[in-house]
UniProtKB/TrEMBL annotation:
Gene for this chain: PDC
Record lineage: Eukaryota, Metazoa, Chordata, Craniata, Vertebrata
Residues in Phosducin domain copies: 1-166
Broad class of where this protein is predominantly found: other
GO cellular component, one term: nucleus
Protein name, per record: Phosducin
GO BP terms: regulation of G protein-coupled receptor signaling pathway; visual perception
Keyword line: Cell projection, Cilium, Cytoplasm, Nucleus, Phosphoprotein, Sensory transduction, Vision
Subcellular location(s) per record: Cell projection, Cilium, Photoreceptor outer segment; Cytoplasm, Cytosol; Nucleus; Photoreceptor inner segment
Length: 175
């Protein structure tokens, strides 16, 4: 192999590497432009009625807010909190919150026989409410059951593409 042939092959490999890096950067930029709105990714604990109103009313009109009203020691509340924590990680564009019924300022409206309750808001408006929501599930339920239930009512967006979700793409993945 001559020096000229070696240099040509080496230049081709460098060009390919530059193209891969360029494609990766373009994909990340495109994903960032298409990711509308804030990202949450966790189940937020609301401390009082004022925080509850802020969480619902001061959110973008396009953001879905799911609020779990619960009380410690009520059947299904702990499992629903765990399920919503998992879903919050998967649906980062949805704002998931929880608040104890006794902290809402309207605790008399939430007796133990209506808990756990899920309220779903969009644009500050209540779009769905599910009283004693765990009655919809079997004795033992998981995040996939809650996800299927919410999807049945069209309350969750489509999942993000995992490969682009965090913006990290290995160079080998981009072709």
């Amino acid at each position: 192999m001559s020096v000229q042939e070696y240099e040509l092959i080496n230049e081709d490999m460098e060009d390919e590497s530059c193209l891969r890096k360029y494609r990766k950067r373009c994909m990340q930029d495109m994903h960032q432009r298409l990711s509308f709105g804030p990202k949450y990714g966790y189940l937020s604990e609301l401390q009082n009625g004022e925080q509850f109103l802020e969480a619902v009313e001061k959110e973008r009109k396009t953001t879905t807010v799911i609020v779990h009203i619960y009380e410690d020691g009520i059947k299904g509340c702990e499992a629903l909190n765990s399920s919503l924590s998992c879903l919050a990680a998967e649906y980062s564009t949805v704002k998931f919150c929880k608040i104890k019924a006794s902290n809402t300022g309207a605790g008399d409206r939430f007796s133990t026989d209506v808990l756990p309750t899920l309220l779903v808001y969009k644009g500050g408006e209540l779009v769905s409410n599910f009283i004693s929501v765990t009655e919809q599930f079997s004795e033992e339920f998981f995040a996939v059951d809650v996800e299927a239930f919410l999807n049945e009512y069209g309350l969750l967006p489509e999942k993000e593409i995992p490969a682009l979700g965090n913006g990290n793409l290995d160079e080998q993945e981009v072709e």
